[in-house]
Amino acid sequence: MVILESILTGMTITIGAGTLLYFYQNELLYPAKYRKKSCEFDIPIFSNDGILYTEVILTTKDKVRIRAYVYKRPNDDEACKRPTVLALHGNRGSIGQRSAIVHKFYHNFKFNVVLLSYRGYGHSEGIPSEEGIKIDAQTALEYIRRHPILYGTKLILYGRSLGGAVAIDLAARNEDEINALILENTFLSIPKLLSTLFSPLKYLTFICTQIWSSDEQIGTIKKIPILFLSGKLDALVPQQQMKELYELTNTSAGKEWKEFPFGNHGNTISQLGYWIVIKEFLLWAIFDKDEGKLK
């Protein structure tokens, strides 16, 4: 009887979880609580360092107006010669929380930076979905390639968590436009992530509409150098998923793995040596290390 009750309880929990997954998966993956809160954060700007941004409204092919924030080097001649970073945030992220990213890439590395706010996040219109966010990222890429100053710059995609999946998808579909890919604490796919977080869901992942199949796409990237930044203590996205992505990568341009022993899902970016690793990766990925010039 005890065994039967346990089985019934387990079935009830699984069915309940499956029902939530089926009807509310977009809300679970792109929670409104955090998307609304993201509007409260100021866009990162450092007037003391002379960092100014331009807010642009981009209209996607499905007629959604999204926001991007462009931090261009102050001198146009310098801007067109320096790389550009397209930063892609996580599912609970806010571009207003990307101060460290802007400061390091813009102030320390002297790069141009573009922050994208997905549909439904910050002040962008629309409702987030896998299909929609992929369109948003493509729209941002096309904006950069049409920009009168940034169009010819080396382009680096930097994605954390969900942003890593967005970056992988964008790179896989636009390999000739991307020069380097930086991924932090991202996952194999949503079905595989859900199976890890709650094992009974492995029998219900067929009902997922949000897939983000990075495990399938990353192997199609053949000529972009990729850096993997992994927090060993990540409890949300198990490190094993990052390791498997690394193993699935077969780019001829080279790949690099860096583990941070005390990094979790949220604080890996603040771990000692994080930005040093990125700098050293970029030296061989897009620069001539001996001369410090772009390849």
Automatic annotation (TrEMBL):
The chain crosses the membrane at residues 6-24. Residues 81-198 form the Serine aminopeptidase S33 domain. It comes from the Eukaryota. It holds the Pfam family Hydrolase_4. GO terms for cellular component: membrane. SUPFAM superfamilies: alpha/beta-Hydrolases. The keyword Zinc-finger does not apply. The keyword DNA repair does not apply. GO terms for molecular function: palmitoyl-(protein) hydrolase activity. Keywords: Membrane, Transmembrane, Transmembrane helix. This is 10641_t:CDS:1.
